[in-house]
Amino acid sequence: MKRTFLLITGVLAVVAILFVNATDSTEGYEVGDLATDFKLPNVDGREVSLADYEDAKGFILIFTCNTCPYAKAYEQRIIDLDKNYASKGFPVIAINPNDISKTPGDSMEEMVARAKKKGYTFPYLRDDSQKTTAAYGATKTPHVYLLNKEAEGKYRVEYIGAIDDSPREAADVTQRYVEDAIGALTKGEKPVVTTKRAIGCTIKWLDS
Hints:
By secondary structure, this protein is of the alpha/beta class. 32% of the residues lie in helices and 21% in strands. It has helices at 2-24, 69-85, 108-118, 131-136, 177-186, and strands at 34-35, 40-41, 47-48, 58-63, 92-96, 124-126, 140-141, 143-151, 154-161, 195-196, 201-202. The strands form three sheets. Strands 1, 4, 5, 6, 8, 9 and 10 form a seven-stranded mixed β-sheet that branches. The chain has a two-stranded antiparallel ribbon with strand order 2-3. A two-stranded antiparallel ribbon has the order 7-11.
């Protein structure tokens, strides 16, 4: 009995180690990495890239969508981020990565309608191939990557994660992670908080 117990314990320990290693392995960018540019179709029919914004100091890049309740709860806050920070050199760029065969409400046609209805002041792009989403390592909607432009074509990832600490009600926000990070960058400082777990709906990936 004792030998059986020890054997089971040993097996569980190995499984635990493998699980930790698997969950610790991450794909996509980490804070401090340089992000590469992309070119994706916008709701206005044009293609948009980071290089289009010659005067930008950085970007609030947000993977979001039409259909997720969390994305809807954050929608006005995303609009406000662009209104408050685009003029300061940090515009919002939103990307919808969802496979529309799983969520038809995330089609370009539906995105165009929503952007018009809500008065989006920022690009709302479709990542049909999901290559950009995978490169960044986004997993949720919404999922933020705050980029700091260091030089032409060089965009440093300075913050990854949630917009703030209230994924449902804006009135309950007590910590504004993205705004605090931008505040630090505009002072020539590094953000104190660089990562916060994104809370939202899982991105609907294409079937492999």
